[in-house]
Amino acid sequence: MEDVKNIRVTPMPESKYVKPLRFHYTQNGKEKNWDLLAVHDSVAIVIYNVTRKVLVLVKQFRPAMHFNSILPEDREKETIDIEKYPPSLGLALEICAGIVDKEKSVVDIAIEEVLEECGYNVPAEKMERIISYRSGVGVQAALQTLFFCEVSDDMKTERGGGVDDELIDIVEMTIPEMEKLLSSPGPVQSPPSFLFAMMWFLHNKASKYIRSFAYTCSECKKHKPTVWDWLIQ
What we know:
The chain has 233 residues and is an alpha+beta fold. It has a domain at 40-175 and 193-206: Nucleoside Triphosphate Pyrophosphohydrolase (Alpha-Beta Complex), CATH 3.90.79.10. It is built from seven helices and nine strands; from the N terminus they run ββββαββαβββααααα. The strands form two sheets. Strands 3, 4, 5, 6, 7, 8 and 9 form a seven-stranded mixed beta sheet that branches. Strands 1-2 form a two-stranded antiparallel sheet. A hairpin with a 2-residue loop joins β1 (18-27) and β2. α3 (175-183) crosses α4. The protein is globular, with a radius of gyration of 20 Å. The termini are far apart.
């Protein structure tokens, strides 16, 4: 995952994923313009494994996150010093997600992404649609649709990790571990959509699972009292 080297930055050629545009308009009688990106819409899926009582997440190298960790004076050098800017700066903890680039429903694309990235074969009736929202409104504002699904170990039919040349690690976190992550001052190596999705899960789903499990593991016995302690009383 962190075996990243020979990093350099060049102007972007024509891309099938991202198209830079300048948006011209008149507002209150004043001529204005704004630079933006035309990109694909996407899906994202909160996955909870009821067998082991863990959230199923993914971690992958995100070039844009690494690039924005580089100081401006170092960005235009012929190569980027990976001793000064190690690849770990670009590792993002996220929920399973993927772009809508096929003639399929968002539900079918969500099912496909869960199988490809995390290895679980989820039937359509188990995929709960939560909400759609605009992400990155300052630059691209693509529509992302959030889903939730429960999985179990017997639904794991593939290894996961992505397809083609994707390198995706599967990360499992308990509810107390996620609560601790979201309570930290940061910075958190995750996008806002991940934070929103985890907050949604903790608010709407976590009490269902933690009632049956909160004090059965040694880690939960050690964690400091939180709102979940009140929920399970």
